[in-house]
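Why do we care about 3D structure at all? Because function follows from shape, and shape follows, mostly, from sequence. That is the central idea of this module. The next example makes it concrete: a single protein chain, its amino acid sequence, and then its structure expressed as tokens.
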Amino acid sequence: MIFSLLKAIVRLVLLVLRRWEIKGMENLPATGGLLLVANHVSYWDPVAIICACKRQVFFMAKSELFKIPLISYAVRSSGAFPVRRDVTDRNAVRTALRLLQAGEVVGLFPEGTRSKSEEMLKPHLGAAMIALKAGTPVVPVAVSGTRGVFSKITVYVGRPIHFQSVTKATKAELESISDRIMTEISQLLRS
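And the structure:
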């Protein structure tokens, strides 16, 4: 209830102050497990994506956010779950897989952190690994304009990408899938 109210208020703020626009929303399946992968340049990125989606998005968020009282409350209320970025966090991977298998939407940033420039960073392999293990569609999402204070924010939703489900993949296969996902995001940013 509180989350729905906050989401409605933030949507209004985004529309009025940031001229928020969503393109390609028809590409987002209405049901079934779904992995959203996006570029990351600002703290506004997950907010803009969550507000753009009709379905709840369970974001994988850095564990440090869960240690700051007020921010922790907001992050937990949104459905986010913690990931330790300094190690391969098996608990975070298991949580993501469980949510995807339950038909939920999981969001993550393959870059692992915010880019200090508009250039995308080299992706970590976690998104590709989760995509292959879950066997759910991957939807690339590009967010622009979130860095500035009054710049227009646009959320671009790409077409779902389907990868064959496998239990074990080579590093080269994971890198290839990661690169494909980032290429799709980059193309959305240029559109």
